[in-house]
């Protein structure tokens, strides 16, 4: 495990050398980092990490994005997620898998009251419609590993929430 300063990521290129696979789940919130900070973390840091990984020999990059990601969206969150998907694809990995989960169900250290309420509601909905609007982070992690173990023929593969649930069962 290497600790890097994302503000000086280029100085940590050695940490990205010699890995066949790269997994990226980096992200923050606009509330926590402000609009500019959100863009810097969710787009700029991720794109630069992908470039360093490719230069270091990475062949398969797996990116956790978001349901509804669209570079043309009027909404900052979805636009940034769409932009970073495009940037990562443009790096030129042999394989690039993009996961677009719905609301992530997880326990957080920091308090996010509205997110907690939403998670409680969606957790209840998940009993009836398990793949509709949410996905446990453990399922996303299993799907990320599974897509590397069985990459398929496509250069770029995009997995929506239902496919994440299916692949994450393994």
Automatic annotation (TrEMBL):
GO CC terms: cytoplasm
Location of the NAD(P)-binding domain: 4-151
Pfam families: NAD_binding_10
GO process terms (BP): import into nucleus
SUPFAM superfamilies: NAD(P)-binding Rossmann-fold domains (SSF51735)
GO MF term (any one): catalytic activity
Subunit record text: Monomer. Forms homodimers during oxidative stress. Interacts (via N-terminus) with elongation factor EEF1A1 (via middle-region); the interaction is direct and competes with EEF1A1 binding to guanyl-nucleotide exchange factor EEF1B2, thereby inhibiting GDP for GTP exchange and reactivation of EEF1A1. Interacts with nuclear transport receptors XPO4, IPO5/RANBP5, IPO7, IPO9 and KPNB1 as well as GCN1L1/GCN1 and LRPPRC probably through their HEAT repeats. Binds NCOA5/CIA.
Name of the protein in question: Protein HTATIP2
UniProt organism field: Pomatorhinus ruficollis
Taxonomic path: Eukaryota, Metazoa, Chordata, Craniata, Vertebrata
Gene giving rise to this polypeptide: Htatip2
